[in-house]
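Re: duplicated header lines in exported structure tokens

Our pipeline writes sequence and tokens for each protein into one text file. With two proteins the header for the second block appears twice in some exports. Here is an export where it did not happen, for reference. First protein block:
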Amino acid sequence: MTMVESILLCLLVTLVITTFVGWRAGNERRDVNLLAGLAALCGVGAATALAV
């Protein structure tokens, strides 16, 4: 695992935790959806980096 993959995975975990905390705190739905979308994009990037 390279440094880029490690950073992407850490960013993914951070975004997922932030999304969960935002959802549990009762933030607006659009804000939580935006965080979830960013987490999904980061997940796709991390998966691509790991596959290549």
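Second protein block, exported in the same file:
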Amino acid sequence: MNPFFELIQIALGVRDNLESVPQNREQWDDLLSTCSKHNLVAVTFPVIDSLHDKIEVPLGVYSRWAMMSEKVQQKNERLKAACKYLSELFAAGGFRSCILKGLGVASLYPDPSLRQSGDIDIWVEGDRDVVLAFLKDKCTVTDIVYHHCHTHIIKGVSVEVHFTPTWMNSPCYNRKLQKYFSSNADSQFGNYVGELGFSITTLRMSAVYLLIHIYRHVLDEGIGFRQLLDYYYVLNVLDSQTRKNVIKDLKSLGMMRFAAGVMYILREVFAIDPDLMLCKPDYRQGKFLLEEILVSGNFGKFDSRNAHSMDESRLMHGKRKLRRALRFLAYYPSEVLSLPLFLVWHYFWRLRKGYIK
């Protein structure tokens, strides 16, 4: 078996031993590099730490692994304080808010400090332009798109303020999705966790939103195993009734086909208990998805097919997105075929709203 997959399974407590032990420094470097590529360095370090007495882990590799893990934990402390600050800032301005993914999902991990977070995604209730006016009064706002904008409200922390958690290219499914978010908004903004100091998504919403988040990134740029590990931990804590509700929600949003592919990965890589799955795994979908994830790494940062110049024009950006999407046509036709329409609509919508010049 792939030593990376074995390492993940040991970290999850579903495997006891690392059987495919790297045989030399180069192989250990590759294993650390793969963990880093998928933002799983800190999650896997306790395994490396425990193995250090049983097998020979090169000191240089061990030291780098330990330092990278410590940096993840330090960053999580800063992000926790930042999330609380943002929640209080928006509350003072009369806005309810909710942290998406991030530290909310981390709370489901056995050790939340080991989940490697990226930026902060915060869903803010209210009219888009009203929220933007509030933000622009306090900081620089850039990259305003349909579902979110980038802000520089906290020095050294990337913050995406969401007007809605996510979207779909298909007009039909996007209407259903936005209606779903609207009808469930109160329970999200009201899901305040005192220990954290801010609101997070409910388990039912997390199980729906995170799957669509994975779906979006697979189509748009790529995804890493950290996002799949998040989903593993969400499914791990769903009770039977919530699981049934999630399946009903995903069916209404046309997401069960993709879910079947994700279940395949959760079985093959994470060795998930079959009773926790949302549906029967689909080998064809899952195998294709697994190959994409192995190539892409975290948010497609390691996928050479995504290479582009820093000054890429909007036209070239659109062409690159279309070219990537065509790879998924046989698997997700509705979303791929709707992409050209969405790109054109989105461009003129942003132009009309004054979000681009």
